[in-house]
Amino acid sequence: MTVQIRQKIEKASDTFTAGERKLAAAILSDYPYAGLSSIQDLAARSEVSAPSISRFMAKIGLTGYQEFQRSLIAELKQGDRSPVEVHERGRHIEGDYLSDFLTRASAQMAIAGDAITEEQFQRVCTLLASSKHNVYVIGGRISDTIAAHLSFHLRQARKGVFHLPSDPETWPEYLLQMKAGDIFFVVDFRRYQTSLASLAALARDERGARVMLMTDKWISPVARHASDVLPVPIESGTLWDTYSSALAVTEAIVTRIAEEHWEHTRDRIESWDTLRVTTKETTQ
Questions:
Q1: I need a labelling partner for 21 at 20 to 30 A (CA). Which of 169, 171, 201, 274 fits?
Q2: Helix segments in 5-49, DSSP class H
Q3: 81 vs 263, higher pLDDT
């Protein structure tokens, strides 16, 4: 499996000088787009010299800035691969289909913990659990199933959670409700929806919301507007990417929040069930 530029930078980070750390921060803060500009533009943005950038590339195992940009472009292309391309290049199932498929899905879940640090996981849980702000959730064409799973369980643990519909005509209503500090949680996997990036930009810039993103290793364009990015592995090597690890991370988030605030969650679930049963009985 090809090692991403992001991973190369993180692996070599302990050896960086102060200037190289500044350069790494500039690249990762707007990854991968920051590296697609000219070397002069990147030097000006990171306040280092062009020769310093060339030395940085050698330190992370690249021959130079051209290879750096070619690698970033290749990563972007991977993020836009269709199921047809994935199927043609993937390794087909071998042996017992169900057993092999589940083995692949399990492998993706096993490495999800390496992609998201425990510190980041705890920070996201704390922010999503806080009653000081509302939480708005949305996903893409397929990934909205993950967003729906998150919002449904989170609503049972706290109030002020809203799942945005897929129809863009309804989005202004939710944007108008957002207040500074509210959380806008977006789930977006390849092939990315440009409308979600535009929506995230409006939520952050016009309403002051804090954008969180769950995405894959190729990183949705929504990341340009996000304060927190949760990259989860999705490659199964088959026709469809697998969302098993995304679902597992989502369940870990909502379970952690419910357990940490169990007394409040228990009371809310009991009230929820009472009203649900009452409503059911009165409509029969």
A1: 201
A2: 5-12, 18-29, 39-46
A3: 263
Q: Is residue 179 part of a domain?
A: yes
Distance CA(124)–CA(137), nearest Å, equals: 14
Structural domain boundaries, residue 222: 97-273
DSSP 172-188: HHHHHH--TT-EEEEE-
pLDDT-based confidence at 33, cuts 50/70/90? confident
Residue 70, token pair as written in the block: 């070619």
Distances in Å between the alpha carbon of 126 and those of 115, 120, 155, 156, 209?
19, 10, 15, 16, 16
CB 173 within 8 A of CB 223: no
pLDDT band at 86 (very low <50, low <70, confident <90, very high): very low
> Strand 161-163 relative to strand 135-139: parallel, antiparallel, unpaired?
parallel
d(CA 192, CA 261) in angstroms, rounded, equals: 34
Q: Report pLDDT for 84.
A: 47
The percent of residues in the chain predicted with pLDDT above 70, rounded, is 89
What's the pLDDT score for residue 21? 86
Q: What CATH number should be reported for the domain holding residue 267?
A: 3.40.50.10490
